[in-house]
Write a structure and sequence with these properties.
Layout: E1 6-7, H1 16-24, E2 35-42, E3 46-54, H2 65-69, E4 72-74, E5 77-81, E6 87-90, H3 92-105, H4 113-126, E7 140-149, E8 161-171, E9 182-187, H5 204-208, H6 211-219, E10 224-228, E11 236-239, E12 243-248, E13 251-255, H7 265-276, E14 280-284, H8 288-297, E15 300-307, E16 311-319, E17 325-327, H9 335-348, E18 359-361
Parallel strand pairs: 1-3, 9-10, 9-16, 13-14
Antiparallel strand pairs: 2-3, 2-8, 4-7, 5-6, 5-7, 6-18, 7-8, 10-11, 12-13, 12-15, 15-16, 16-17
The protein binds pyridoxal-5'-phosphate (PLP).
């Protein structure tokens, strides 16, 4: 049975002036809209009690399983405002499917795709005024669906009570002052996820385990970490929060999905768009030495990362634990990097024809 996310309006929403002030400078992940969607699952009754409620804290029992065993998963996607004022989602079906796959891996119940979509439509409609104007920029409403074990029980088993929720946060352009290549820290000491682990699921533990390396990266002046496989530490996997690519000749190469890499929606879209740019998309194992050697001898002309938050981020250099630095080409934004970035943004903001049927109108 499909859930009905009935709206219980916030009696004290932010004023139009307060909202405008936030939307003028939204940052990322610090401001939230006036409402949130919720639903509950129990072993006895399945999914029920869906609603759009005023945004506010959860009441959690201190024994709630999420706080102890981290049984929780999440998603991340955006709502984009087109020039005519309409509001659209980019491939939300892919996020819904990944949310179900993540839930299965973490022993959580699957939220049916129509309920995932229903919650997003209900919340975006309730808080449509929070979707920033496109205005030629890259502002959007970031949507964060998540699910966690809310049963008060200290035994290690799948929770018999689960809470689903969706919150929304206006987001400004990731590169507020123009797209600039970033430096990436390569760690072979710390791993994000191992074979048979949860790397392909979007769960908090993967991010928690990445933070120690992320701190090292920040200490080295780097924006993010490139993780290698946890077994041999020889193969390129992904960044802490983005998939990675390089251009070599006319090939656009990304690590194959091994089970420890998150299958990015942006990654999947680039695999499709590459061919349209005359590039051959290749998914395969990549040795770290191949990546760094190719950068050093110039056979790798561009390197970039991709994900919902920043779309495509050019990588200008890598630093490693031996104190070496590898500068990609001239350290500038590559031709294909810029072209793919523009293609994705043009589709998302309705400036290009949506030939692949990737966009879904919400309002
Ligand atoms: C670990 C990781 N890899 C890759 C991605 C990119 O995925 P997507 O393109 O679906 O945002 C993300 C971001 O969600 C991520 O957290």
């Amino acid at each position: 049975m499909t859930l009905n996310f009935d709206r219980h309006p916030n009696a004290n929403p932010r004023s139009a002036q307060e909202r405008s002030a936030i939307l003028a400078n939204p940052g990322f992940g610090t401001n939230f809209t006036d409402h949130m969607a919720v639903a509950t699952w129990t072993l006895a009754d399945g999914w029920h009690d869906a609603a759009v409620l005023p945004y506010g804290p959860f009441q959690l029992d201190p024994a709630a399983a999420i706080l102890h065993y981290a049984q929780g998963v999440f998603e991340g996607l955006k709502a984009y405002r087109h020039d005519d004022g309409s509001i659209w989602l980019f491939r939300p079906d892919a996020n819904a499917a990944r949310f179900r796959r993540s839930a299965i891996r973490l022993g959580l119940p699957e939220l049916p795709d129509e309920d995932f979509m229903g919650s997003i439509e209900a919340l975006v409609r309730a808080d449509h005024a929070w979707v920033p104007e496109a205005g030629g920029g890259e502002a959007s409403l970031y949507l964060r669906p998540f699910m966690f074990a809310s049963e008060a029980f200290l035994g290690v088993r799948a929770s018999h009570r689960v809470t689903y929720s969706l919150i929304a946060s206006p987001a400004g352009a990731y590169f507020a002052s123009g797209v600039k290549p970033v430096s990436i820290w390569i760690t072979t000491k710390w791993s994000r996820a191992g074979a048979g682990g949860t790397g392909a699921a979007k769960c908090g533990g993967n991010y928690a385990s990445s933070l120690i390396a992320q701190k090292e990266a920040a200490d080295q002046g780097c924006a993010q970490v490139l993780f290698a496989d946890a077994g041999s530490h020889q193969f390129v996997e992904e960044l802490g929060g983005m998939n990675v690519w390089f251009v070599s000749g006319n090939q656009l190469v990304t690590p194959a999905l091994t089970g420890s890499i998150l299958e990015g929606v942006t990654r999947a879209s680039i695999l499709t768009l590459a061919a349209e740019r005359g590039l051959e998309p290749v998914e395969r194992q990549i040795e770290l030495s191949e990546l760094l050697g190719g950068i050093a001898d110039g056979s790798i002309s561009e390197v970039f990362a991709c994900g919902t938050a920043a779309v495509i981020t050019p990588i200008g250099a890598f630093k490693d634990e031996g104190g070496r630095e590898y500068v990609v080409a001239d350290g500038d934004v590559g031709h294909h990097t810029a072209g793919l970035r523009a293609s994705l943004l043009d589709i998302q903001y309705g400036r290009a024809t949506d030939e692949h049927g990737w966009m879904t109108k919400v309002r």
